[in-house]
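In response to a reviewer's request, we include the raw inputs and outputs for one of the modeled complexes. The two entities were modeled together in a single run.
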Amino acid sequence: MEFSTFVFYFFAAVLIFAGLRVITARNPVHAVLFLVLAFFSASGIWILLSAEFLAITLVMVYVGAVMVLFLFVVMMLDIDFARLREGFWKYLPIGVAVGVLLTIEMGLVLVGAFGGKEMPAAAATITSQSKPFECTSNICELGRVLYTDYAYPFELAALVLLVAMVAAVSLTLRRRSGAYADKRIPPEAQVVVRHEDRMILVKMASEKEMSEEPAAPTGTRSGGTQ
Amino acid sequence: MNFDVSNLYSATAEIFVAIMVLAIMLATAFARSIARGLAYSFVQITLIVAAFITYFTLDAGNDFAFHNMFVHDQPGGILKMMVYLSMMVALIYGRGYLADRKLDRPEYYLLSLLSTLGMMVMITANHLLVLYIGLEMMSLSLYALVAFDRDAVRSTEAGMKYFVLGALASGLLLYGMSMIYGATGGSLELPAVKEAVLGAKNGNMTMVLLFGIVFLVAGISFKLGVAPFHMWVPDVYQGSPTAVTLILSSAPKLAAFALAMRLLVGALPDLAGQWQSMLLFVAAASIVLGNFAALAQHNIKRMLAYSGISHMGFMLLGLLSGGGTGYSSAMFYVIAYALMTLAAFGMVVLLSREGFEAENIGDFKGLNRRSPWFALLMLFVMFSMAGIPFFVGFFAKFSVLQAVIHAGHLWIAVLAVIMSLIGAFYYLRVVKFMYFDEPVNNTPLKASGELLVMLSLNGMAIALLGLMPGALLKWCAEAMKVAFTVSG
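The model returned the following structure tokens for the whole complex.
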């Protein structure tokens, strides 16, 4: 066995193990960490395919940014995972039966078609129609294809990101209503303020009769600007 | 590099809409005080101009652009123009409704325009990747629109349901596409897929292709909202603001039809026998389920949702019959359905007012007393949906049934007719409520000028297209003939 084949099987095994643990881990933080492991092993496989730029991007974008965000969310949100798992054992038999059946069928179809054949080299599928210059590096090749042959989907993908942005902002941004909504204090209000506006003195009797209910404390109230 | 300007000519409409999206976004951000009216009128102007551009860039043949990822052909052009029209009408109907509920933020119009762009991309896609990106652009905008009434629990719940199920459907579709990609030796362009399928004589590869088609059909069925992938339709239609339901029920159906045409007819015609039998099951199930479930509804939005399921099943019958008549009848059906559903939900919007949602079929009681003209328009819509002669819905059903019988599925034609008869009950129940029952409330109907004019035009279109369906039918037939060079 070649060394690269060995490395491939090693990464593949780790990947499958990590993937399984993501859905079986009881602790959601562990699940996220296993997902990180899965991404690392996937990027290892991509390096074997000599797609080193994609592999690095996977680590930097997914592990570095997305997964960290995931961890934050999982740690901060108080999700009751026990309640989410309530119906787990009830639905498990049906789920397992359907899953096993699907897997067997898919296995039969896919192994029948692709089993024991040499896969076409990955590079062969990205053949650019326009080749003004030769590329040696991964980034160069990707960039050229992305900005020439795939310019249309590339621009469209940018618009999809715009959709996500507009949607997220319009669904969550709330403008506070009322004065000082943006927590900014207008300087003109600070200049014209008088001490009567800042403090209201309320006269109260120093003693209360026993029969009365204890009143809510209404003492001094400080105004908005300080 | 072979990247010349003439290459972009046929994609002018898409580029124009994309630029306008950005322009409107910036304009509304800087002119906040007039942003609402500005966004609305700019979006309408954009749609009108895009319609003109699409019309004038339409050649007799097929134009390709962006390295064959984009195709501008006759059926695509017609569908795109119908999408603009549906969006325009839906935005006009929904405007007052949204203003009453303080929902007419500029983002609403922006997301509507972005979803229109997604539909245009889907309709003109000639590449699996582009098709998928267009679908996502449309769907993501629609998810956000459904949840747009963010303080209402049912709106956000509907948005969540739609999002989760929609993501699942996208996953199915992508999985199917990856199978096609694998089995055809790495082709993503639709014509290349067609060539590769023709060349595939290997039995095992055909199995993989079939496997992929199963997932494709599932994904398409979800987007069309047909049984057994219809579960989201009634809940989402009911939960989203009626103005959004208007959008949801009309233009995306046209785009989903284009998706089905491009994927199944455009790329996989050699496996037609396989996907036709899958669609046959889907169509029959939707017609039966849609009509029976609609009988039991008291909520008009749910009733129209189930009726939409049965209509989409009917449309699929045309699609699976194959041949020129089949495809053009399906296209005619989906256009007619878009017109009818717009008018139907337009009436629901009309009956709603500030703080009141006209959701029950009972709200139509005595509409004739309150406004004979609107009652007459609703009568047109209901008769047309039921398929009563001399409305556009009748000719749509008629041409589909003709194609189905021509293709030799006699029993399914009989089933479809019987189910239409059962369906007529719940359409006519609305008519009965309007004309023979006492009004429950006598609040005068408040319709803005543009709503009145547009709804009247829409109702008249349903009646007139029923009297003179020939032109549109011929248009669809010729477009299909040119684009897919089908015989029959």
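As requested, we also summarize the result in words. Chain B touches chain A at residues 1-3, 18, 21, 25, 65-67, 69-70, 105, 107-108, 110-111, 114, 117-118, 121, 127, 129-130, 133-134, 136-137, 140-141, 143-144, 147-148, 150, 182-183, 185-186, 202, 204-205, 207-208, 211 (CB under 8 Å). The first strand of chain B starts at residue 63 and ends at 65.
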